[in-house]
Design a protein that fits this description.
This protein is an alpha+beta fold. Helix 7 runs antiparallel to helix 8.
């Protein structure tokens, strides 16, 4: 701490505890093992010597100047392990390294929100416990907000070595800042075979046979394209932490030919045939995207194809997605979307961004979007998706008899309101017909 806080003084608030400044200055690490009284274990696996009153000559026993939990919190504030997040107006604490490995504890750059200082640091069991001193926790919170002295937690996403966070209304990507704290950290190690196997077992339990299980697990481009086309960035305040980052990385992995989080190539995905493990991973990442995003008219229409004609949802989406991309890419739509989140239509630019992510960039946005559609179609062929609704055995007479009602229900579907282009029922009907007969 030498020199760093020489000029630091806490705000002289009325409820400032008399012992706070002393603890802040005097707390130091010790080489003596923890004893659960005046020495406690820190997040770094070292001993922290706590501040006590009293002496060693036996006349007056030692007592802690304040509860060990408060002293540990003050030390963690000073050392940068406890930080304030302005966007969420709460404290966040660094996650401890609890893995079994030799050597010293690692200093992780992942964080979790703090419910209260008292609960986080195990100070008392009840709100009226005599060990609790809310003036201390109020002081820690007040001091943690002082960005000139203490680093803050930003609303953002980390996948080392990159961090994405919002600054001055824009999302900024920085590299190499190992100490920057953000609200969401993704570690590919946590998305291993155990998660895949669990997803597979759940889907097998939910379905009656292997074919139904495969259909349930089968997810293609739509889970990532639909949310991304309407929200510019993960940190816009609408999409939730990590969404756009998940979308861009996931779509690179599923549609592109480059290694990406969680790092395996699509050529292997396609060429080696259908794999429940691969489909399960896609489904899990799709769920992460779904949980934090709106959908659109492709899903509205797919819902009704399933309801009226019993097509599996993933296949229904795959049959419609190319038509919907072209439909949404219109720069002069009949009507704007209900929740467009932009001043003028630019969905085509969103699709083009995806095309650029995947290496499908053309001479302009129109060409890039067409390249994207062509490659989605190629992926569908490689994994066995048929070309039309009719190819899946849906009777033409029944389809036409239900078309009007199906189109009206798709219009009323909850996903339609989030579509960037406000669809007319007649336009939904036209897309259904193209999907049935082939464009």
């Amino acid at each position: 701490m030498a020199g760093q806080y020489d000029d630091y003084r806490p705000i002289p608030a009325e409820d400032l505890p008399a012992k706070y400044a002393g603890c802040f200055k005097l707390l130091e690490l010790s080489f003596t093992p923890p004893n659960d009284f005046d020495r406690v274990m820190t997040i770094t696996g070292q001993s922290l010597q706590l501040i006590t009153d009293g002496d060693d000559n036996g006349k007056r026993g030692k007592t802690l100047v304040m509860h060990a939990g408060y002293q540990k919190a003050i030390w963690e504030l000073r050392e940068g392990h406890l930080r304030y997040c302005p966007s969420q107006q709460r404290l966040w604490r660094r996650d401890p390294d609890i893995e079994d490995h030799p050597g010293e504890r690692r200093l992780l750059n992942s964080w979790h929100p703090v419910k209260s200082i008292e609960d986080e640091y195990h100070i008392g069991e009840r709100s009226n416990d005599r060990n609790r001193n809310y003036a201390v926790s109020s002081t820690i919170m007040r001091e943690a907000k002082r960005a000139q002295w203490f680093r803050q937690v930003e609303r953002g996403v980390r996948i080392d070595p990159c961090v994405w966070y919002r600054k001055d209304g824009h999302v900024v990507c920085i590299r190499g800042d190992t100490d920057m704290a953000v609200t969401q950290t993704f570690d590919p190690r946590n998305m291993g075979n155990q998660v895949v196997e669990q997803a597979k077992r759940i889907c097998e339990w939910l379905t009656v046979d292997g074919k139904s299980c495969a259909n349930l697990l089968r997810m293609f481009a739509t889970p990532w394209l639909e949310p991304y086309k309407q929200l510019s960035f993960v940190l816009s305040g609408h999409g939730g932490d990590g969404k756009t980052l998940l979308l861009s990385n996931a779509v690179q992995r599923v549609l592109g030919d480059r290694k990406s989080f969680p790092a395996f190539k699509t050529t292997g995905y396609c060429d080696s045939g259908f794999s429940l493990n691969r489909e399960s991973m896609n489904d899990m990442m799709a769920g992460m995207a779904f949980a934090n995003a709106f959908l659109g008219v492709c899903h509205s229409m797919a819902h009704k194809l399933g309801a009226f004609h019993h097509l599996p949802h993933g296949i229904a989406n795959a049959l419609l997605i190319e038509l919907v991309i072209r439909y949404n890419s219109a720069e002069v739509p009949t009507k704007m979307g209900t929740f467009p989140q932009y001043a003028y239509p630019h969905t085509k630019r969103r699709y083009a961004e995806f095309g650029e992510y995947l290496g499908f960039k053309g001479a302009n946005d129109d060409e890039t979007v067409e390249n994207l559609i062509r490659n989605i179609h190629a992926l569908k062929e490689r994994v066995g998706i048929k070309n039309t609704i009719r190819d899946y055995g849906v009777d033409e007479e029944k389809f036409l008899a239900t078309l009007d009602e199906m189109s009206e229900q798709a219009f009323d579907d909850q996903c339609t309101g989030a579509n960037p282009r406000y669809p007319l029922i007649s336009e939904i009907k036209e897309m259904y017909l193209k999907a049935y007969y082939g464009e």
